[in-house]
What we know:
Elements: E1 3-9, H1 11-24, H2 36-41, H3 46-58, H4 61-70, H5 78-87, H6 93-102, H7 105-119, H8 129-137, H9 139-146, H10 153-164, H11 166-210, H12 212-219, E2 230-237, E3 244-250, E4 253-259, H13 262-283, H14 286-297, E5 300-301, H15 302-308, H16 313-325, E6 329-334, E7 337-342, H17 344-359
Parallel strand pairs: 1-2, 2-4
Antiparallel strand pairs: 3-4, 5-7, 6-7
Amino acid sequence: xxxxxxxxxxxxxDFILSIARxxxxxxxxxxxxxxxxxxxxxxxxxxxxxxxRKIEKDIPEEYSDLLTKYFSPGIVVFKVFIYLAxxxxxxxxxxxxxxxxxxxxKAIAAIHLYLFSSVKKNKIDMIPLEKAxxxxxxxxxxxxxxxxxxLSGENKWNIIEFxxxxxxxxxxxxxxxxxxxxxxxxxxxxxIDRIATKYSLELEKKVSNYGAEYIENLLNxxxxxxxxxKNIRVTISFFSEIGYIFFIMGEDEDxxxxxYRHMEVYAExxxxxxxxxxxxxxxxxxxxxxxxxxxxxxxxxxxxxxxALNLSNSTISYHINMxxxxxxxxxxxxxxxxxxxLNKDRLIKLLDESYNIMTGGVNEK
Length: 365
């Protein structure tokens, strides 16, 4: 399967998640690792907490009830706004607010019902978007829909109000969005953009080095069974430190909102295994093993090695570069010639480290 991965940063997504973070009090959103030990070692970013506390302190009481109703844990109204921002590829907050003003509010609520049912597909049946409009009309249908979900009774009625009166609720949210963007969010937007962009570039570099395997291990997903091209888009969020939120944007695109410290916390040990995978892929080639065998007995320059193995210069260069990247082969410059040499100490060290990682450091007695 062909996977196309691109990383990016969206200030609109962080604008939305900054509001959700105030009410959830969680260090991240969405899916988390089951490894409790790693969670316990995680220390929240105190600078981020200061920003959140300041935002919460400066929000007027008149908006507090609105946020409690529609941005509290479980209701996930904020997800529909992230979905729409990505779908329309809107990257400016003011532009996004204008888009919401001009959009059919009932359609926004219907999309949320579709997303809500999709996320909770193990709890309730997924609702096709076209049927979501019908479901919103009947309170009893909505109550039956939410019966087996973890939503509290109060939150169920809040979400039903959202579906039954979308014009009022969404227009109230838009009024708050305008106030919040003008009065509070702009104070932090440049700093947030700078930090999140830095982590986006770091993720992009790791994807470039390790490919789809890095993303699959980072998110605990497996795309190997797909038989079509899949576009994976990942945006880093400053206001979500760990975890990720997942959206199916279409048959060919999956969209992830990834906490900016997720790589630090969850890829820490997995990165070791990725290194092993990458090493064994490098060694698991007959040509490269023949190069190692030749260089184990003597240093050689490129043309000499190519002739000895009956390979073209371009072919030998390709394989040598892979071995150099792992540090298994090194260049020794003598006068005007660069000789290739096997870095025996490095090769032994890599194999020893791989053994220790795979066995958890257990030594044979």
